[in-house]
C-alpha cells in the first residue's frame, strides 16, 4: 500500500497577503494619508521577506509563474525601503529619474507577467495590468511630470491591492472550505499543453 503524499500549503496565500498589505500601506503614504515610517517596515517585511519566501516556496512546488512574480516584486519591496533609508540618511539616495527608471522596469514586468496570467483566469491579469498602469503613472511623476499622475497611479495600485485581496480570499476559502465560492472569471486563452511547453524548453 503506497503512502499518500502530505498536502502542502499554497505559497500564494502568504504571497498575496504580503502584496496586499505592502501595496496598501505604500499608496496611503503616496496619497498623504500617513508618513513614510510604516512603508519602511511593512514594505521590507510583508512586501519583501514575505513575498520572496512565497516565491522560493513556489520554486519547490514547480510553479514557474509565481516563482518569478513573487520574487520580482519581493525584491522590489526590499529595494524600496533602501531608497527611503538612503533619503533619510543622505547617502546612496535614489530620487527623481533614477526612481523613475526603477518603477518603469517593474511596470513593464507587470505587463509581461499579465500575458501569462491571462491563461489562468480574469482577475489575475487585470490585477497585473492595474499594477503596470499604476507604476507607469508614478514613473511619469518621477520624471518630473504632474503630481496628479502619481496620485492616479496610487489609485490604480489600490485597485490592484483590492483585486489581490479578492484572490487571497478566493484561494483561502477554496483551500479551507474545499470549494470555490468566489469566481475569478474565465481565462482569456488556453495555454499550450505541458508537453508543448517542455518541447520548447532548452
Continuous helix count: 7
Morphology call: globular
Calculate the terminal CA-CA distance, rounded to whole Å.
38 Å
Count the beta strands: 0
> SSE string, helix = H, strand = E?
HHHHHHH
Strand content: under 5%
Fraction of residues in H or I helices: over 70%
Unreliable parts: 195-202
* Multimerization status: single chain
Question: Average pLDDT, to the nearest integer?
Answer: 89
Structural class: mainly alpha
Radius of gyration: 18 Å
Largest sheet: none
Polypeptide structure, described:
This protein has 202 residues and is mainly α. The chain has helices at 12-30, 37-60, 64-89, 96-117, 123-142, 147-177, 194-199. The protein contains 7 helices and no strands. Residues 195-202 have low confidence and may be disordered. It is found in: Membrane. This is Succinate-acetate transporter protein.
Distinctive features:
mainly alpha, disordered C terminus, 202 residues, 73% helix
Detail the topology: elements first, then pairings.
Layout: H1 12-30, H2 37-60, H3 64-89, H4 96-117, H5 123-142, H6 147-177, H7 194-199
Summarize the structure.
The protein is mainly alpha-helical. It has 7 helices and no strands.
Amino acid at each position: 500500500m503506497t503512502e499518500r503524499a502530505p498536502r502542502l500549503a499554497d505559497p500564494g496565500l502568504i504571497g498575496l497577503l504580503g502584496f496586499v498589505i505592502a501595496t496598501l500601506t505604500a499608496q496611503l503614504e503616496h496619497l498623504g494619508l500617513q508618513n513614510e515610517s510604516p512603508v519602511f517596515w511593512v514594505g521590507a517585511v510583508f512586501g519583501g521577506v514575505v513575498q520572496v519566501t512565497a516565491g522560493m516556496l513556489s520554486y519547490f512546488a514547480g510553479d514557474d509563474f509565481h516563482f518569478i512574480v513573487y520574487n520580482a516584486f519581493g525584491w522590489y519591496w526590499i529595494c524600496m525601503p533602501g531608497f527611503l533609508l538612503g533619503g533619510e540618511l543622505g547617502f546612496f539616495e535614489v530620487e527623481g529619474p533614477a526612481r523613475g527608471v526603477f518603477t518603469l522596469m517593474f511596470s513593464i514586468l507587470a505587463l509581461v507577467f499579465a500575458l501569462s496570467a491571462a491563461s489562468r483566469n480574469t482577475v489575475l491579469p487585470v490585477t497585473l495590468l492595474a499594477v503596470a498602469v499604476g507604476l507607469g503613472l508614478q514613473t511619469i511623476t518621477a520624471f518630473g511630470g504632474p503630481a496628479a499622475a502619481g496620485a492616479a497611479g496610487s489609485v490604480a495600485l489600490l485597485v490592484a491591492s483590492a483585486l489581490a485581496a479578492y484572490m487571497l480570499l478566493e484561494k483561502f476559502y477554496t483551500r479551507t472550505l474545499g470549494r470555490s465560492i468566489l469566481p475569478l472569471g474565465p481565462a482569456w486563452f488556453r495555454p499550450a499543453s505541458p508537453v508543448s511547453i517542455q518541447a520548447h524548453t532548452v
